[in-house]
Write a structure and sequence with these properties.
Largest sheet: 10 strands, antiparallel
Number of strands: 19
Number of helices: 25
Shape: globular
Length: about 675
């Protein structure tokens, strides 16, 4: 990977940026592309974009509430709607009529409707004289107050979003939808053709798409905004835009913070992923049903493992460190040279460095994690009973009133729970706790209760009644009294572990998060003072606009074209002898002669994306849909920490291939007609 192209800090260059839609890069677009986005154009993209609670993005693509995303974003629902006799991951699914569209058990879709700047109000809550920890608490309470007031006034789902790691606070008002039904998904074999081998690579040949429909009052929603389908599609060198919800970047992190991630956080995460991947391979190999029920877990772990490998690789690159060092030195020199700036912001970097030193002291205990789905339910029920009686502003953030509907949707989901998989998850987590803390640790002894991890997991999972929704609801409604009287082993474990878990969380919030929030707020002010406010914040799984040109690249001395074709899929299969994961579904083999094999299939662009952008629409200058983001190449994985467009590329499914396959392989002409209707 060549990073020489990365110069010292420039506020905006090339096609860099995950931009707020209310702070779009209008100057750069005008200067480089002679394109001026109007307020109406930006509003249209904003209100056509959809956020999935499963961690991805999507968009409205018809006037009848049709939503498009990736197969791998929708796969959680495909698994939950499957049975041993009807595996939708294997067979795919298409509802030829709306009456055949099954309701998803716990899917929540959000559309960003309003944006308001509440920075002054949030920051003013941290009055002079408060300690760093108390100031952080005061800001959190004010955020909850603002959300409560806004929800009562607007009826929207309101969230105060932290931007620039504490530099700004915006109030987002969302329209929330929970009656979501599955419309169409291809087979997993073609949605993830090439499997882990080709994941984060290019050329690619994946039909990574999935379609849902939103209903209101048992009728399809008619959204005010939706993306029209482009007839001509997009060409090499064309300008494109991505509107979606990138998960998290750390480009504004200080050097000391990045060192903590390089040396502690990311390696720990990688070890856990490698460990769990091997365990899941063993679990899935036992029988076909195990393989079916663990598919979602397994591919998720594989994907994360490969992504984190790329991130760590970026933080091992001396060129990235040289750039980061130059950027930080430049800003710190500017602050030190100005007495007023130095008095206000000069200690910010030391604050963050000290926070990382503190975090190292208790990181292993704090990051032990939860375990099984059933344990997660138990912990939520225990904490809900404790938090709900408190004033709203005093609760943990995830239990405030504005979050309860989403919590209950997940907590009382009718989705199937598989005992064998739950025992494997729980045994894995219990063994990890022992390995991390040692067998004599009090938490370990409490968790294991004198049993081996496997035996304890079996006793917990087989003994709990939380698999029954009615039991969960009774505990949720019964509050503290119901929890204290419960003899359910999973509830009792959650009760036993919660005091230490809460204490560690409070320590993190008071000693790490509070210092980081204060320090990064100062650094954000320094950046704005030095470079102006035409800067994008780090990604926070909130709506962003990225831009880029469709463009190939050079790798290892060979040119990689921007597009692949449907015909290339069959060539790739033949190269790999059709052996997993390079086998195509039977309908593709039989239907090959029907296809126009020259149809553009997947393409790459220089758009600045990251995890969470999966399912994001790609649009042209007219705002018409030309593609569907589903991946980045391996060179893009360092975009968590630094931007480059030399080789890093966003990978998309071409809109023309979607229609071609619908009409000629999936007998989904009606759906194709709905998409292309103008």
């Amino acid at each position: 990977m060549v990073w020489a192209v990365l110069a010292a800090f420039v506020p905006c260059k090339a096609d860099e940026g995950m931009w707020l839609l209310n702070r779009a890069p209008k100057k750069q677009l005008k200067e480089k592309y002679n394109f001026e986005p109007t307020p109406q154009w930006l509003e249209h993209l904003q209100k056509s974009a959809v956020r999935f609670n499963t961690g991805g993005s999507g968009s409205f693509v018809s006037s009848n509430g049709l939503v498009m995303t990736n197969h791998h974003v929708g796969s959680d629902m495909l698994m939950k709607l499957s049975t041993p006799d009807k595996n939708l991951m294997k067979t795919g699914f298409y509802a030829k009529t709306q009456a055949e569209e099954p309701k998803c058990p716990d899917l929540e879709l959000m559309v960003l409707w309003t944006i308001d700047d509440v920075t002054d109000r949030v920051k003013a809550a941290a009055t002079p004289g408060l300690s760093t920890a108390d100031a952080n608490t005061a800001r959190r309470k004010m955020m909850t107050t603002i959300e409560d007031e806004a929800e009562k006034k607007s009826g929207l789902d309101c969230q105060v979003v932290t931007l620039y790691q504490g530099g700004l606070y915006h109030l987002y008002g969302y329209k929330r939808y929970t009656d979501v039904r599955l419309v169409m998904a291809p087979e997993h074999a073609v949605a993830f053709f090439g499997g882990d081998t080709d994941n984060f690579e290019f050329p690619r040949f994946d039909l990574d798409m999935c379609f849902f429909r939103i209903y209101e009052n048992d009728k399809p929603l008619h959204p005010e905004h939706y993306l029209k389908w482009s007839k001509p599609g997009i060409g090499d060198g064309d300008l494109s835009f991505v509107v979606g919800h990138p998960g998290r970047t750390r480009r504004l992190n200080t050097l000391e913070h990045l060192k903590f991630m390089r040396d502690v956080d990311l390696p720990t995460t990688m070890r856990r992923l490698w460990r769990r991947e091997v365990q899941l391979q063993s679990f899935m190999a036992r029988n076909n049903e195990n393989a079916r029920i663990a598919t979602e877990d397994y591919y998720g772990v594989q994907n994360s493992r490969k992504a984190y490998t790329g991130m760590i690789g970026g933080l091992h690159d001396p060129a990235i460190w040289a750039k980061k060092t130059a950027d930080e030195d430049l800003l710190r020199k500017a602050v030190n040279a100005n007495p007023d700036w130095n008095a206000q912001w000069g200690d910010a970097w030391d604050q963050i460095a000290n926070a990382q030193k503190t975090y190292r002291e208790f990181y292993p205990r704090y990051r032990l994690g939860g375990g099984s789905e059933l344990f997660g339910m138990a912990r939520n029920l225990v904490r809900l009973a404790e938090e709900k009686p408190k004033p709203n502003v005093d609760r943990l953030r995830e239990y405030r009133d504005s979050e309860l509907d989403s919590l209950f949707l997940e907590l009382y989901s009718p989705a199937p729970i598989y005992e064998d998989l739950e025992m494997d998850r729980m045994a894995s987590q219990l063994a990890y706790i022992v390995e991390t803390l040692g067998g004599e640790d009090p938490m370990v002894k409490t968790a294991l209760a004198g049993q081996s991890p496997r035996a304890r997991a079996e006793a917990l999972v087989k003994g709990t009644k939380l698999k029954d929704i009615d039991v969960r609801k009774k505990l949720g409604d019964g509050g503290k009294d119901a929890i204290s009287k419960s003899t359910d082993p999973m509830i009792q474990l959650a009760v036993a572990l919660d005091p230490e878990s809460r204490a560690l969380r409070k320590r993190f919030e008071d000693e790490v998060e509070a210092a980081e929030r204060e320090g990064y707020s100062k650094i954000a002010s320094a950046r704005f003072a030095q470079y102006g406010e035409n800067l994008y914040p780090d990604a926070t799984f909130t709506l962003r606009l990225a831009l880029g040109t469709v463009k190939g690249y050079n790798e290892d001395g060979r040119d990689v074209p921007a597009f692949t074709t449907l015909g290339g899929t069959f060539q790739r299969m033949e190269e790999r002898k059709g052996v997993f994961p390079f086998e195509l579904p039977e309908r593709w083999i039989k239907g090959k002669s029907k296809l126009d094999l020259n149809t553009p299939y997947n393409f790459v662009s220089t758009a600045d994306i990251i995890g969470g952008n999966s399912g994001s629409p790609v649009v042209d200058r007219k705002g018409e849909l030309v593609g569907l983001i589903f991946d980045g190449n391996i060179q893009s994985l360092v975009l968590d920490f630094a931007f480059t467009e030399q080789q890093a590329r966003a990978v998309s499914v071409d809109s023309r291939a979607i229609i071609e396959c619908m009409r000629k392989l999936y007998d989904a002409g009606a759906l194709a007609d709905e998409l292309t209707a103008q």
